[in-house]
Structure formats: structure tokens, C-alpha cells
Write a structure and sequence with these properties.
Structural class: alpha/beta
Radius of gyration: 25 Å
Number of helices: 10
Shape: elongated
Distance between the termini: 34 Å
Strand order of the largest sheet: 15-14-16-17-13-18-19
Mean pLDDT: 89
């Protein structure tokens, strides 16, 4: 089954008309995208967009063999002239199945938002799932077996990919292709980076993909360290790296602070932006979690873990530090690093960069700065991927 992506952009395209944003200003050449439409084996057109016939011609295809045109958007499509010879555009009711003369079977998949998704099965049994912009499947049950290809709005609805993974609809070999791409990602490089974190990819308009053909799925790093300064966007970056995966365990090392309303507001803001399917563990006993099997861990953050560890060994007192605190802290750090090295879980950890500012004025603060630098370096050594976040921009240091 061959799928030609006549367009891969949002309904308004990219760049948007008259939009002055940075993403639209740089969306030129292969980064420019028309509204998404798919031509399947030359027989099925999914979404009718302006210039579809010209887009097909540019891709070396023709619409003359199209026997069915189906719409996914919650409306009846833009007001445009139907290309000569094309059948009228229609929509399959949710849950109903349509068999084409070409032998393809098309089933309408209910969405959790207005619109219709389509599961297309080729005469050979290959399966494609195509979802509308901003949509994710509603009430996903067991998928039976993974789709060979999923074409969906991965950037706007990463939770849809997470649902499909949880149900078995997206497996290790599923080709997850992002479409309906809009100007909410500032550059092609940043788009590719975010999609790779979700195990997905984007392709230029006019690309023909062969469903079921082997394609190297983006390698999702198993261990990632995200570092940066205060309010740099490092926690948001860490959350993005796992938002397309189900059943994430969020390890909050800061705990609760009775009577501290500002801290409570911070915790609430973090919790509200996390997917509802994620589970939270408020603990600094991170090593046991790393040694267990289970879903991905997001550890936020190592700085607060170190504060707790230094509290437990009395590291703030110079005499206790010299007598036993330094040795006991080294043992705690070594246990954590060994657990990261041996873990079988996917791990994303957040930490702070505190060594780039002024030298602290007291011994305890200098000690914390030094120990955090050592912890960060040891933890990073065990990670396949290390990111530095500055002003909301993620810079790859490793991987």
C-alpha cells in the first residue's frame, strides 16, 4: 500500500497567510506545507484540499483513478471546485465500514473531538490509521495488533499517540508520521527533535511512503538528563519527551511544604500541565524505583534530591561533614548512579545548573554547588542523551 502525502500542514497551511511569526517566516522550500491530504494507492483520497490535483502532479501522481474521497475535518471541507472526474467528497459514519472497488476496506474511527478518523486496510492486510487535525481516538480498546503506519497530529495531540501505544495500536515497528503541522514549532530542526522524542517523523509534501516497508523508527533515548537554569523551560522539555507515552511515573523529589503557598502554586502548575494518565510519586527514594521494572520515570529534580540527601547526612554542618557527612553522601550518590546505570526503565531526569553564577558567600551553599556539579556529571555519564535548556531552547550536548 502506497500513501502519497499531497500536503502535511495544518488546514491553513504553513506558512499561514499574513502571519509574521518566526516559524512562518522560515517555512520556505521543503519546510513549506500545504493542508494535509493523503492519496492511497491512487484509489482513495483522504481530505480534499485546494490544489490537490496540482499537488498530485508535482508528486508524479494522478487523481484520475480515485474512486472515493473521504473527509476527516469536522466540517464539509473548504469551498472549492471539485477537480474533474473526482467523485463527490463524503464521510463514513463512526464505526461503519466501507469496501472500495479497489479492495481497500475503510472503517471510520470515532474521535474525542469533532472529526472522523479512518482505518484503511489494503487487500494484502496492511493497516493505515489516519486521524484529523487536533484529534485522537475516543475509547481506544485493544487494537489486536499494531498498525503498520499511523498518520496523525503528533505535535498538537501527543496524548493520542500515548493512547495508541497503551492499546497496542502503535508498536515498536509502527511508522508514526506527523501531519497537520502548524506554526507552533519554531524550526524544522526543533520539529525533528521533538518528533524523534515521540518516536515519530515528518516528511516533506509530495512524499510517497510504502506502508509496511521497513523504516528505521527514530531511536528514543532510554536515559535522558535535562539541565538548565531557573525558569529555563527544562521541566517542560522533560515532560515533552514523555508526553507521547502512556503510564509515566512522575517522581517529585520536592515533596510538600506545609504553609508555603508559593511552593504549592508551583506544584499545582506542574501537575495541571501533566497528562491525566501519569502517576505521581512524591519521594526521594529514587534508586529503588530505578531498580524496578515498569513504565517510564520522569525525575524532577536531582537538585531537590541532593538537598534531601545532604539533609539526611548532616552535610550543612562543617564538623559533621568532615566526620561522616561527605562519605555518606558519596555513598548515596554512588547508589543512585549505579541504579541509573543498571535500570531497564526509560528515564528522563531534570537538574539545575548552579555553577555559572557568583560564588556563594557561605560554606554550605558552596558545598551544595560543588556536590550538585559532581552529581550532574556522574548522572550525565550514564545517559545516552543530555540536553541543556536556555531561554526555552533545548541544546543537545550528547545523543
Amino acid at each position: 500500500m502506497e500513501v502519497t502525502l499531497l500536503g502535511t500542514g495544518a488546514p491553513e497551511g504553513l506558512p499561514r497567510p499574513d502571519c509574521p511569526c518566526a516559524a512562518c517566516a522560515t517555512a520556505r522550500g521543503s519546510a513549506a506545507r500545504a493542508a494535509t491530504a493523503l492519496l492511497v494507492d491512487g484509489a482513495l483520497l483522504l481530505d480534499l484540499t485546494p490544489g490537490a490535483a496540482l499537488a498530485a502532479a508535482r508528486a508524479g501522481r494522478s487523481l484520475t483513478g480515485v474512486r472515493q474521497v473521504l473527509l476527516t475535518h469536522p466540517h464539509d471541507g473548504p469551498a472549492l471546485e471539485l477537480p474533474p472526474g473526482l467523485p463527490s467528497a463524503g464521510r463514513v459514519p463512526d464505526g461503519r465500514e466501507l469496501t472500495l472497488i479497489s479492495g481497500h476496506r475503510v472503517r471510520a474511527v470515532p474521535m474525542d473531538s469533532p472529526g472522523t478518523g479512518y482505518e484503511v486496510t489494503s487487500p494484502e492486510g496492511l493497516r493505515l490509521l489516519y486521524l484529523p487535525p487536533g484529534g485522537a481516538p475516543a475509547g481506544v480498546g485493544e487494537a489486536g495488533r499494531p498498525y503498520d503506519m499511523v498518520v496523525a497530529d503528533v505535535i498538537a495531540r501527543p496524548d493520542g499517540a500515548a493512547r495508541l501505544r497503551a492499546s497496542g495500536g502503535v508498536g515498536p515497528a509502527t511508522d508514526l508520521v506527523a501531519v497537520h503541522l502548524d506554526h507552533d514549532v519554531p524550526s524544522p530542526r526543533e520539529l525533528d527533535r521533538r518528533l524523534a522524542a515521540a518516536g515519530a517523523r515528518a516528511v516533506p509534501d509530495g512524499t510517497t511512503l510504502v506502508v509496511g516497508e521497513y523504516h528505521e523508527v527514530p531511536d528514543v533515548p532510554r536515559r535522558t538528563l535535562v539541565t538548565g537554569g531557573a525558569r529555563s523551560g527544562k521541566s517542560l522539555e522533560a515532560e515533552r519527551r514523555l508526553e507521547a507515552f502512556p503510564d509515566v511515573v512522575y517522581v517529585a523529589t520536592g515533596g510538600s511544604r506545609d504553609g508555603d503557598t508559593e511552593w504549592a502554586a508551583r506544584v499545582t502548575a506542574h501537575r495541571d500541565r501533566r497528562p491525566g494518565s501519569w502517576r505521581t510519586e512524591e519521594t526521594c527514594d529514587v534508586a529503588p524505583l530505578l531498580r524496578e521494572d515498569g513504565p517510564p520515570l520522569l525525575i524532577d529534580c536531582l537538585s531537590l534530591w541532593l538537598t534531601d540527601a545532604m539533609d539526611r547526612v548532616g552535610a550543612w554542618d562543617d564538623d559533621t561533614w568532615a566526620r561522616s557527612g561527605e562519605r555518606e553522601l558519596r555513598e548515596r550518590v554512588a547508589e543512585l548512579v549505579a541504579a541509573v546505570r543498571a535500570t531497564s526503565r526509560t528515564v528522563v531526569a531534570v537538574t539545575n545548573e548552579v555553577g555559572a553564577g557568583i560564588v556563594p558567600g557561605d560554606a554550605g551553599s558552596r558545598r551544595f554547588r560543588d556536590e550538585l556539579g559532581r552529581l550532574n556529571a556522574a548522572f550525565a555519564d550514564e545517559c545516552e542523551h543530555v540536553l541543556l535548556v536556555v531561554a526555552g531552547q533545548a541544546l543537545g550536548l550528547r545523543g
